[in-house]
Amino acid sequence: xxxxxxxxxxxxxxxxxxxxxxxxxxxxxxxxxxxxxxxxxxxxxxxxxxxxxxxxxxxxxxxxxxxxxxxxxxxxxxxxxxxxxxxxxxxxxxxxxxxxxxxxxxxxxxxxxxxxxxxxxxxxxxxxxxxxxxxxxxx
Amino acid sequence: xxxxxxxxxxxxxxxxxxxxxxxxxxxxxxxxxxxxxxxxxxxxxxxxxxxxxxxxxxxxxxxxxxxxxxxxxxxxxxxxxxxxxxxxxxxxxxxxxxxxxxxxxxxxxxxxxxxxxxxxxxxxxxxxxxxxxxxxxxx
Lengths: 139, 139
Description:
The structure is a homodimer.
Chain A: E1 11-16, H1 33-42, E2 50-55, E3 65-70, E4 76-82, H2 88-99, H3 113-117, E5 119-123
Parallel strand pairs in A: 1-2
Antiparallel strand pairs in A: 1-3, 3-4, 4-5
């Protein structure tokens, strides 16, 4: 478990199961909200070529339930403020769109609204083109 | 430029050159603060086995100048709120510590103070051990 290498074309949805963000069922559920979100996703069909993985902590602890999308050759995106009761479908939609790109950049207009407003950070793929560095001006 | 594959043991310091965080020299410098930070780092000796790369945007735009540390087999860490005039040395110290680990996890007590308080997010390496998922309880 957990040590299977990422296949060349596979995208991943990483879900923090320790998050204490918005829960799906109020205070009654003993599971942490991040775990609730993960458990909802486990029950659903994932887009072909993608997989779901639980993560201990993505260290975005102040901004709600948090996930990351990543895949070989793609920018990694971290999203926060996810509602365990509301956002499983949005994540699956976003994961399909993400996996449908070559570089992980979902065109802005197609991007789910939650992704537009709750991107925490992104990190380039291993191979990426560095921006041109003009010597003096505002690069 | 920019397309050299990451060597097996190399760690990277990715610096967003578009950031509009704290500048090094007030308003006089036409370069963006992120670019100022990058330019300061370019002039210094990096820890052996590491390299510096400019990035267009790490999309942590509301939380100051932002960088990421990453390397094969290591957790990727994103840090924000960097001061272009103050934090180049801290970053080089942190990069050396990061590169000195096998998995990117700098022991807490050794971690630079700025890293302790300004971690934006982290993402696991491709190969990582998923946490144990107990069926019902608070995982």
